[in-house]
Amino acid sequence: MAVPAAPISLAPALAEIEARGLRRRRRTVQRRIPESAEIEVDGRRCVDFCSNDYLGLAAHPQVVEAFIGAARIHGVGARASHLISGHQPEHEALEQELAAYTARERAIVFSTGYMANLGLVRALAGREASVFGDSLNHASLIDGGRLSGAALYRYPHADAAALELQLAARGSGAAIVLTDGVFSMDGDLAPLPAIAAACARQGAFLAVDDAHGLGVLGRTGRGLLEHFQLDATEVPALVGTFGKAFGSFGAFVAGGEDLIDTLVQRARTYIYTTALPPAVAAAIRAALKVSIAESWRRERALALTRRFRALALAAGIPLAASETPIQPILLGAADDAVQASNALLERGFYAAAIRPPTVPVGASRLRITLSAAHRDADIEALVAALAEIQVPG
Ligand SMILES: *Cc1c(COP(=O)(O)O)cnc(C)c1O
User: Fold this and answer.
1) Could you give phi then psi for residue 35, rounded to 5 degrees?
2) Residue 244 falls in the annotated catalytic set
3) pLDDT in tens, 137-180
């Protein structure tokens, strides 16, 4: 008689997650007050300090109107993938505007940033390639490397010299370097000039995921590449997402003609999925325009960031070395982060606890994000609450 296969036992694994203080529960945000950072969570009105809507565009009237207007014309769904019959004028126009916005030959729109990174890395890296990534890269870049089947190397966080040693020691074959621009859980910046120089010297292809820099950093909001004045030769592939500063949904890769055409031919997360709803593309186009026209939003998000840092430092609250609207407060143990988050919620502030595996073990934190939608009084009250709950200093 055949031995029955061992059943998959989920309950013990879940119990172990619980025992380690790592069980994740979703809180339903019942209500958002339009054009503010106020939300209702667990029946309580509070100020949202964990959204990525840095410019306050998710409910901007022009963005919402563009979405509704396009839905009336095109319907809700794209009806097919881009290579079948899903590619429509809103997508085409958005891609051209993105190419101009990023000063690159072409851009291609993906349904999410996660999919953009998976598709990009796998399309670029064959099995003979080597992929090098920062140790704190976003999960989607890490997974892209794994899925590609290439040899994977992680270099110490933001360490261009260590990266260059790894690149120099590699065998033959293509080398691809992947890094977040602004690190999503830490808010610090990748040292892109040094990384780009190392890639140029070692003949490696550099792709930067600027999900959190686009719309926020640089003289005109073009992101970290503008901040460092790096061009398309130095950074041949740029990934951006629309779910952060542009308050919408979706992502893109911008680069040279051959890169983008390679993605059309080979990026499986582009080819085998339904195109982004055209109304979402219309909303993104409106958000891009507003982000440029209302540059005060970017300045405001950064001014509030400086204000938060000044007040927090004066109150003895330990901050990380981040000048961006991502302001982590490191607490270490997962339980401490959860307790701090709950204590804040009781006082009317929502800042989710970030725990492993999103961050390394022992590096659990509150991740505060600031937005143009916040009021000065929100920032002051948050710092007072942080001081009251005695975040360890
Ligand atoms: C949010 C994020 C992504 C994923 O983008 P989605 O569009 O939400 O899938 C990718 N990379 C980084 C650095 C991010 O912060």
Assistant:
1) 50, 40
2) yes
3) 999 999 999 999 999 999 999 999 999 999 999 988 899 999 99
Nearest ligand 1 atom to the CA of 250 is 7
Q: Could you tell me which of 41, 381, 5, 55 has the C-alpha nearest to residue 215?
A: 55
Measured in Å, residue 305 CA sits from the centre of ligand 1 at 21
pLDDT tens for 9-29 read 899 999 999 998 889 888 888
Q: Which amino acid is at 153?
A: Y
Q: Is the CB of 137 under 6 A from ligand 1?
A: no
Between 89-102 and 278-293, two packed helices, what is the crossing angle to 10 degrees?
30
Question: String of b and e for 62-73 (b: at least 16 CB within 10 Å)?
Answer: ebbebbeebbee
Spot the catalytic one: 244, 322, 341, 364: 244
- Write down all domains in the chain, each with its CATH number in brackets: 26-54+295-388 (3.90.1150.10), 61-293 (3.40.640.10)
Q: Tell me, using a 6 A CB cutoff, whether residue 209 lines ligand 1.
A: yes
Instruction: Return the half-sphere exposure (C-beta side, CA atoms, 13 A cut-off) of residue 351.
Output: 28
Residue 367 Cβ < 6 Å to ligand 1: no
